[in-house]
Amino acid sequence: MYKKSNLDLRILKKFFLNSFQKTLENSKPNIYLKKNIKKKNKNIIKILDDEIDLRKGKLFLIGWGKISGYLAKYLVEIIGKKNVNKGLIITNNKVVVSDNIKVLQGSHPFPSSKTFSSSKKLLKFIEEIKPNDYVISLISGGGSSMLCIPSSNISLSEKKELTKQLLIRGIQPKKINTIRKFMSQVKGGKLLKKINSKKIFNLLVSDENQNLMHSIASGPTIIQKWDFKKVFNDLADKKIKKIVSKKLLNKIKVSAKKSKKEQSLSKTYEKIYFQSRKKNINNLI
Predict the structure, then answer these.
(1) 8 Å CB contact between 205 and 72
(2) What is the rounded CA–CA span in Å between residue 202 and residue 195?
(3) Are 161 and 169 in contact (CB under 8 A)?
(4) Could you give the 3-state DSSP secondary structure of residue 156?
(5) Which three-class secondary structure state does DSSP give residue 170?
(6) CA pair distance 51, 39, nearest whole angstrom
(7) CA nearest neighbour of 58 among 121, 129, 127
(8) pLDDT tens, 142-174?
(9) Which of 29, 37, 58, 155 has the fewest C-beta atoms under 10 angstroms from its C-beta?
(10) Measured between alpha carbons, how far is 165 from 114 in angstroms, rounded to an integer?
(11) Alpha-carbon distance 142 to 106, whole Å?
(12) Cα(46)–Cα(38) distance, rounded to whole angstroms?
């Protein structure tokens, strides 16, 4: 019977530590961005096989999430500060990007009045964007709590308390995301509808294990085709009904029914991701 010697164990340990280190190095945001984004010349920025032509429109950066500020910092280093017209990032980390990019504070894991204030400023910021301009969205984990504007019939305190209860009671993340999206003015692709740009690039960094882009930060700029039968089944779940008050659950259902009607009337809306309309959405994950 073969027995492992101390030398064998040292070799194995070294091998696994080197492999782990290599994995960490390859997953750093700056490496991730450098591999996929290139400055072709003073006017052209390449993102994978697509291009941003600064002669045709200005470039705006927006972002939300725990490392969105660092993503913005590395991106500016790659493409140059002068090539970015303006930017606004919401994060819970203190990071300085450049003087033309504002970094506002958000909270995690629960939304707060600070988050709400920063989110309203982001909505005001995107009003400057014109149809021919370009937008790069820098999105990372934690973005669900850092970009938060509740639906008009739901208060911030209601959303904050419900989010807290859903998390501490161990409700499945997918179900939490569904509820968040129907309590929000920006999640579930709603922010996308407010942006006038025809060309938007989503740069996403997350540990979402299925690579579901609409799940990362609850998908404010990602179009999702809803299975509303499943949505209403989730809302009827016994665990959910124990946590969510009947009054608040009815408000969420009203929002879901409105979205269901919009989806049924807009037959081409879900095809935005496949570039079938004037607005092109490019996702890099």
Answers:
(1) no
(2) 13
(3) no
(4) helix
(5) coil
(6) 10
(7) 129
(8) 888 899 999 888 888 888 888 888 888 888 888
(9) 155
(10) 20
(11) 10
(12) 5
Task: Look up tokens 């002669």; give the residue.
Answer: 55
Task: Express each pLDDT in 206-238 by its tens digit.
Answer: 765 566 677 788 889 988 888 899 999 999 998
Give 212-243 as a 3 state SS string: CCCCHHHCCCCCCCCCHHHHHHHHCCHHHHHH
Q: How many whole angstroms separate alpha carbon 165 and alpha carbon 242?
A: 10
Dihedral sign (CA 266, 220, 73, 36)? negative
User: Average pLDDT, whole number, for the chain?
Assistant: 84
Rg (C-alpha) for the chain, rounded Å, is: 21
249 burial (CB, 10 Å; 0-12 / 13-18 / 19+) is middle
Spatial contact of 26 and 52, defined as CB atoms under 8 Å apart: no
Cα atoms in the 13 Å half-sphere on the side-chain side of 130: 7
Long-range contacts of 41-48 (CB under 8 A, 24+ apart): 42/83, 45/79, 45/83, 47/136, 47/201, 47/282, 47/284, 48/282, 48/284
The C-alpha atoms of residue 129 and residue 178 are separated, in whole angstroms, by 29
The candidate with the shortest Cα–Cα distance to 222, out of 159, 284, 175, is 284
- The full DSSP string for 175-195 is HHHHHHHTTBSSTTTHHHHH-
Alpha-carbon span 240 to 213, nearest angstrom: 24
Residue ranges of the alpha helices (H) in the chain?
Answer: 6-26, 29-36, 68-79, 113-125, 143-146, 156-168, 173-181, 190-194, 228-235, 238-243, 246-265
CA dist 161 → 91, 116, 148, 176, 178 (Å): 21, 14, 13, 13, 16
Cα(273)–Cα(139) distance, integer angstroms: 17
Report field, pTM of the whole predicted structure over 0.85: no
How buried is residue 139: exposed, middle or buried, by Cβ count under 10 Å (0-12/13-18/19+)? buried
